[in-house]
Write a structure and sequence with these properties.
Number of strands: 5
Helix content: 40-55%
Subcellular location: Cytoplasm
Low-confidence stretches: none
Radius of gyration: 17 Å
Family: Belongs to the cytidylate kinase family. Type 1 subfamily.
Binding site for ATP: 11-19
Keywords: ATP-binding, Cytoplasm, Kinase, Nucleotide-binding, Transferase
Pfam family, one: Cytidylate_kin
CATH topology: Rossmann fold
Bound molecules: cytidine-5'-diphosphate
C-alpha cells in the first residue's frame, strides 16, 4: 500500500494557503480541512453567548462543545471579526487541546488528507509527507484580504486592514501555545510576486518532490 499523502499547509493570514490547500485537495482527490474555521467558530460562539474573548473558561467550554460536523457554511465565519476572535481564543491552551483530536483524526485518514492552518506541520501532523509554509509580505497580504472584503461589500480601509494583519501576525507568532512557526522540514513558499496560478503550480511541484522522495 502506498503511504498516506498528508499535506500540511501553514502560513499567515491571506498568504494564499487556503486557496492552495483546497486546490491541492481537489488535484489529489483528498479530504480537506480548513482548521481556521474551528477557531473562528469557537470565537464566534463566545461572542454569541455574550461572552468576553478575554474569558478563557468560556472559550474552553465553547471549544469542547464544538460540533465540527455541523460547521455550516456560515458566512459570518469568514468575516474579519471572526478572524480576530479566532486569533484571540486560539492562544488558550485549553481551546487548542479541545480541538486537537479531531484534527489529528482527520489527518490520519487512509490515503491521506490536506489541512491548512498555523500548526499543522508542527503539532497536528508532524509526520506529514509534504509540508508547505506559505507566506507573502504583510502589504501584499493586506491588499489581497482588503480586495476580498471589498468584493463582498465590507467597507474597510487598506490602512486598517494592514494594521489588522500585523496585529494578528504578532499574536499568532508570539503566543506560547503552538505558535505560528515554519516547521524545520517545511518548504517556504513566498507568493509575494506570484498570482494564484503561479503559487498553486509552485505548491504542486513541492508536493510532487515530497512524493518522489517518499517512493525512492
Ligand atoms: O484565513 P486566515 O489566515 O485569515 O485565518 P484562519 O486560517 O481562518 O485562522 C484564523 C485564526 O485562527 C488565526 O489567526 C489563528 O490565530 C487561528 N488558527 C490557529 O491558531 N491554528 C490553526 N491551525 C488555524 C487557525
Ligand atoms: O487562506 P489564506 O488566508 O492564507 O488566504 P486565501 O484566502 O487563500 O487567499 C486570500 C486572497 O488572496 C484570495 O482572494 C486569493 O485568491 C488571493 N491570492 C492571490 O491573489 N495571489 C496569491 N498568490 C495568493 C492568494
Amino acid at each position: 500500500m502506498s503511504p498516506a499523502l498528508v499535506i500540511a499547509v501553514d502560513g499567515p493570514a491571506a498568504s494564499g494557503k487556503g486557496t492552495i490547500a483546497a486546490r491541492l485537495a481537489t488535484t489529489y482527490g483528498l479530504p480537506f480541512l480548513d482548521t481556521g474555521l474551528l477557531y473562528r467558530a469557537v470565537g464566534l460562539e463566545v461572542l454569541a453567548t455574550g461572552g468576553d474573548l478575554a474569558d478563557e473558561a468560556a472559550a474552553d467550554r465553547a471549544a469542547r462543545a464544538l460540533d465540527a460536523d455541523r460547521l455550516s457554511q456560515d458566512a459570518r465565519l469568514t468575516t474579519g471579526e471572526a478572524g480576530e476572535a479566532a486569533s484571540r481564543v486560539a492562544g488558550y491552551p485549553g481551546v487548542r487541546a479541545a480541538l486537537l483530536d479531531l484534527q489529528q483524526a482527520f489527518a490520519r485518514q487512509p490515503g491521506g488528507a490536506v489541512l491548512d492552518g498555523r500548526d499543522i506541520g508542527t503539532v497536528i501532523a508532524p509526520d506529514a509527507m509534504a509540508k508547505l509554509f506559505v507566506t507573502a509580505t504583510p502589504e501584499t497580504r493586506a491588499r489581497r484580504r482588503w480586495r476580498q472584503l471589498r468584493d463582498r461589500g465590507d467597507d474597510i480601509s487598506f490602512e486598517a486592514m494592514l494594521a489588522d494583519i500585523l496585529k494578528r501576525d504578532e499574536r499568532d507568532a508570539g503566543r506560547g501555545s503552538a505558535p505560528m512557526i515554519q516547521a524545520s522540514d517545511a518548504v517556504l513558499l513566498d507568493t509575494t510576486d506570484m498570482d494564484i496560478e503561479q503559487a498553486f503550480d509552485a505548491a504542486r511541484r513541492i508536493v510532487e518532490a515530497a512524493r518522489a522522495r517518499h517512493t525512492l
